[in-house]
Automatic annotation (TrEMBL):
InterPro entries per record: Coatomer_asu_C
Gene Ontology annotations of biological process type: intracellular protein transport; vesicle-mediated transport
Superkingdom, taxonomy of origin: Eukaryota
A Pfam family reported for this protein in Swiss-Prot or TrEMBL: COPI_C
Name this polypeptide is given: Coatomer alpha subunit C-terminal domain-containing protein
Gene Ontology CC: COPI vesicle coat
GO terms assigned for molecular function: structural molecule activity
Domain Coatomer alpha subunit C-terminal intervals: 3-43
Length: 43
């Protein structure tokens, strides 16, 4: 239990995204699991 608490505290201190995503937040999309590239609706 102590390890989980430590992980949660570290995550709250370092609230940054590991991978930057290039996407338009107004267009619905899903993320490709292997390349992390957004696939917009209709493509």
């Amino acid at each position: 239990m102590a390890t989980a608490t430590q992980v949660m505290q570290a995550a709250k201190r370092n609230m940054t995204d590991e991978t930057k995503l290039n996407y338009d937040f107004r267009n619905p999309f899903v993320i490709c699991g292997s390349t992390y590239i957004p696939i917009c609706r209709g493509q």
